[in-house]
Amino acid sequence: MNNLSGLIWDNLWLVLFTVWGIPLGYFRSKFRKIVYKTDSWLINIKPYFIKETKALFVTLYPDDPEYIRVRNFYRLYLAVYLLLFLSWYFID
Fold this sequence. Notes:
Elements: H1 2-10, H2 12-21, H3 24-35, H4 50-57, H5 65-91
Helix pairs in contact: 3-5
């Protein structure tokens, strides 16, 4: 048991990034489907980034409450990711 806890502690950043990164595909897919107004799964593999990035920082659809809700949650999710990266860079 001590070896397992030592292994996890030694790889704490890997564990944190993996656990936090698992739902990223779902959240990004949901956000992209709203931004590009599609239900196709192909939006997940297409390299469109400009409209998605713009939608993240400005309000493209001010009258769409679902877009606002998902965008704000996605912003929070990415902010935590940024904090993880900054913590890893400056602490480790």
